Amino acid sequence: MSRTLLELVNADLGYPGETVLRQLSLTLNGADFLTLVGENGCGKSTLLRSLLGILPPLRGRMTRATGLRLGYVPQQLQLDSLFPFSVAEVVAMGQARGPKPPQRLKEMDWQRVEEGLRTVDMQAHASKQFSRLSGGQKQRVLLARSIMQPVDLLLLDEPTAGIDPDAEKTILNTVAELHRHGTGVVLVTHHPQTVSQLQTKVLNLSEVANEWKR
Amino acid sequence: METLSLLWSMMAEGILISFASAIFLPLIGGLLYLRRQAFLGVAVPQFSAAGIAAGLALLPNFPSLQQNFLDHGHPPLSYLFLFAGGAAGLALLIFAWIEKRSRHASVEGHMAAGFALAGAASLIFLEWSPSGGTLVDTLQRGSVVVADHHALSIVLAIFGLVALLQWRYWRGLLLVSFDRDAAHVQGFSSATYDLLFHIMAGSAIGIGVMTLGPVLVFGLLFLGPWMSRPLANSMRQFFALIVINSLLATGLAWPISFHLDLPYGPVTVALLAVLAAVASVAFKLRPRRG
C-alpha cells in the first residue's frame, strides 16, 4: 500500500473572488498516475496550481505528506524567451532547493546536469540557448530540470501540447519510467489519447464542473 | 598617457566611482530588462532625482548641513543618499504593490505616470531650493561632481552591500525572475526575492543618480543589456558582455570628454551606444561554422 501524498477535501479552488472548482475531493497516492483532461477553462491549470501549493484552497482543506518532494514541468510557452539561459543553465536550476539561497554550482553539479540531459536525449544541446530550441526540445529540457532531484510527485502542465511526435514519445517514456520507479504523476492534457497507452486514472474536469453546475 | 595620469591625479575618486558603477548598475539593469521592467529603471532614477531635490529643499532646516553645502558645493552624501535611496526604494515598493494588487491594470501606465510626477516634483522642490539647481544641473551632465574621498567611501559601501546581496542571492533571483511557479515549488519565496531585488536596485540606482546623474544611470542600466541580448547564448555571457561594454565605455569616456571638453555623462552614453553598434555589426559579420 503506497502512502498518501496529497489530499484535497471538499476544496473550493480558484482565485479570490473567482471560484473555478467547487467542493473537490481527491486523494493522490504514491503509485498514482492521474491524467487531468477537460475543455479550456474547466479548471485543469487551477487544480494543478493548487496541487503545487501556488493557489491555496479558498475553502476546504488540502493536506500534503510530510516532506513531500514535488517536481513541476510548466508549459514551455509560459516561459519568457527574453531570458538568454543556456540549456545547461535551465537544467541546473532544478538542483536548487529553498528556502536557503542556491549555492554556486560545482563541477559535480554540471556532471549531474549532463546526466539529466542524457535522460531526455538532449545532451548534444547543452550549450545552446534555451529560447532558440523547438517546443518539443524545450519541453524535454524542462522535464530534465524537474527531475534533477528525487521527486515523490511529478506534475506536468500539458507537456505534449504542440510538440513533434518524437519529443512526445521521449517525454511520455521518461514519465512512464519515473512512474514505474515509484514516482506519482499528475499530467494535464487536452488530448487524452496521447496517454492512452499508459495505465492512468483519468479525471475529466469538464464533467466535474458540469456536475457542480447541475 | 600624460592625459591619463593627469586625469587620475585630479579625479581618481570619480574614475573609481565610474568603474564601480559600470559593474553594478548594468547587472541590475540587465535583470530589470529581462524581467521586462525597463520602464521601472527609467522611472526610479527620476524618483531618486526628486528625492535629491527634496533633500536640497529641506536643507535650510539643518544649519550645519547647510554650512557643509556652502563649504563644499554639496551637502554630506549620507544626507543626500537618505533622500535619493529612500525615494528610489519607496518608488520600487509602491510599483511592486500596485503590480500585485491590480492584476488587470497597466503597470507601464503607472510607471509612466510616476515618471511624470517625479519629474514635476523635482522641479518644484528645486524651485524651493534655488541653490540646489546648480548641483542638479551638474548631476544631469554626469560630471561625477561630488566625487571626493568621502563620496568614494559611501559609493563603495553601497555597492559593497549590493555585491554581497548579488553574490548570495543572484541564482535564486534569476530562478524567481524566469519561472516563479517552479521557484515556488522548489521552496523559494518570490516576494522575498523581489524585495531583495528592489533593495539592490533602489540602493544602486539611488547612489548612481547622486554621483553620476540620471542620464548616465539610464545609459549604464539599459544600453548594455540592449546590446548584449542578441549576442549572448547564456546568462553568463549576457552579463559578462554587459559589464565589459560598460567598463570600456566608462574608461574611454574619461580621456575623450577631457580632450573634447564635453560633459562626461553624455559622452559615456554615446560611447555605450557606439560600442553596442560595433559589437552588433561584428556579431553579424562573424564567420559561421558549416
Describe this structure in words.
The complex is a heterodimer of chains A (214) and B (290). Chain A is an alpha/beta fold and 214 residues long. Chain A has helices spanning 44-51, 87-93, 107-119, 135-146, 165-180, 205-213, and strands at residues 4-15, 18-29, 33-37, 59-64, 70-73, 153-157, 184-188, 201-204. Chain A has a five-stranded parallel β-sheet with strand order 5-6-7-3-8, with helices on both faces. In chain A, helix 4 (135-146) packs parallel to helix 5 (165-180). The model of chain A has no long low-confidence stretch (mean pLDDT 89). By secondary structure, chain B is mainly alpha-helical. Chain B has a single domain, classed as ABC transporter involved in vitamin B12 uptake, BtuC, CATH 1.10.3470.10. Chain B is built from twelve helices and no strands. The N and C termini of chain B lie far apart (44 Å). The model of chain B has no long low-confidence stretch (mean pLDDT 85). The interface between A and B is medium-sized, with 33 and 29 residues.
- Say what the CATH topology of the largest domain in chain A is: Rossmann fold
Largest sheet properties of chain A = 5 strands, parallel
According to DSSP, the number of beta strands of chain B is: 0
| DSSP helix fraction of chain B | over 70%
Structural class of chain B: mainly alpha
CATH superfamily of the largest domain in chain A: P-loop containing nucleotide triphosphate hydrolases
How is the largest sheet of chain A built, in terms of strand order?
Answer: 5-6-7-3-8
Number of domains of chain B: 1
- Largest interface: which pair? A-B, 33 and 29 residues
The overall pLDDT of chain A, averaged over residues, is 89
Q: Structural class of the helix and strand makeup of chain A?
A: alpha/beta
Instruction: Note the main sheet of chain B.
Output: none
Q: Could you say which overall geometry of chain A the principal axes of the C-alpha atoms support?
A: globular
CA radius of gyration of chain A: 17 Å
Q: Could you tell me the radius of gyration of chain B in angstroms?
A: 19 Å
Oligomer: heterodimer
Cα distance spanning the termini of chain A: 36 Å
Could you say how many structural domains of chain A there are in total?
Answer: 2
Number of helical regions of chain B: 12
Strand content of chain A: 15-25%
CATH architecture of chain B: Orthogonal Bundle
